[in-house]
Design a protein that fits this description.
Elements (H helix, E strand, L loop, with lengths): L4 E4 L2 E2 L5 H12 L4 E9 L4 E8 L1 H18 L15 E10 L3 H19 L3 E5 L10 H5 L2 H8 L21 E5 L4 E7 L4 H11 L9 E8 L4 E8 L7 H13 L5 E7 L4 H12 L10 H4 L1
Helix pairs in contact: 1-2, 2-3, 6-7
Length: 297
């Protein structure tokens, strides 16, 4: 008997108020057929990343319930945060896990997007593998201008939403839904409060500026710690490993007399992504992944 499993990783625009975060995450906890794996609030980004898995139908239901509750509790007119965003529920990707094809995840994204637009009156854009237009594959391109700028952007013919009316929800903004492979959300903290340095390093690292393939990056200021951060998404960790991004940031930071304080992973990631970095830093010779105990049990 084969079981279809899909992972869903909604990001919503609240990372500070615990009661609101818990109320939104409860929508996943209370949906049959899915299992909550992780949720990671970030006060500086003012954003929470949720990770859950389940059967396809239940995953769509849980994602809709989360988006509905977020729309009720988050007012984007009052929202401020370091991370780019355009809606109360900013993005909802589906990732194939077991017995699922990417094409099936695209259908899930389309069904959820249509439902959010119809029932919640929130305009929806489709991205990555679900994108209907090539320039909408990249989430950063869609989100450019953020919530504030989208009030005018959405009125332009080329930026009409894939589902819903060409106007933002008055408090919940817009949502992006899609289908994609696993990615690693990875941040590197610097021992400087100069955000310009973080932005310059991010520009050197990200693919769009001629840096590492499958890397998206930007500079972020962590106000509570008074330090700058290079925040990244590694969209294909098999082609660009975590250690490559880390080492390049260290190298670029040296030109400004800046050191790396540490790094962090947001949400979950495949074990192989960490094994590659461990093997690199330990300079293992002839190491094979089947030497890992947990892989043999």
């Amino acid at each position: 008997m084969t079981i279809k499993l899909v992972e869903c990783v909604p990001n919503f625009s609240e990372g500070k108020r615990k009661d609101i975060i818990e109320a939104i995450v409860d929508q996943v906890r209370n949906t049959d057929g899915v299992v909550l794996l992780d949720y990671a609030p970030d006060a500086d980004h003012n954003r929470t990343v949720v990770t859950f898995v389940g059967n396809p139908e239940a995953a769509v239901e849980a994602a809709f319930n989360l988006a509905k509750k977020a729309a009720e509790l988050i007012n984007m007119e009052e929202h401020k945060g370091e991370h780019p965003r355009m809606g109360a529920t900013d993005v909802i990707p589906f990732i194939p896990v077991s017995e699922m094809k990417m094409e099936e995840c695209v259908v899930l994204a389309e069904n959820l997007g249509e439902r959010i637009a119809k029932e919640l009156k929130i305009p929806v854009y489709l991205y990555e593998s679900a994108a209907r237009k090539s320039k909408r594959r990249n989430l950063a391109t869609i989100r450019r201008g953020e919530y504030e700028g989208f009030k005018d952007k959405i009125k332009k013919e080329e930026w009409a939403p894939d589902f819903g009316d060409a106007k933002l929800h008055p408090t919940a903004g817009a949502t992006v839904v899609g289908a994609r492979p696993f990615l690693v959300a990875y941040n590197v903290n610097l021992d400087t409060s100069d955000i310009k340095i973080a932005n310059r390093i991010a520009k050197k690292v990200r693919e769009s500026s001629g840096g590492l393939t499958n890397v998206k990056g930007m500079g972020v200021m962590l106000e509570d710690r008074n330090i700058a951060q290079v925040s990244m998404n590694l969209t294909n960790y098999k082609k660009t490993a975590i250690y490559r991004a880390f080492e390049m940031i260290k190298m670029e930071a040296r030109r400004y007399g800046v050191n790396v304080l540490g790094s962090e992973i947001i949400g979950l990631l495949p074990m192989d992504a960490l094994i590659d970095s461990a093997a690199y830093y330990l300079q293992l010779e002839g190491f094979k992944k089947d030497q890992i105990l947990e892989k043999r049990i």
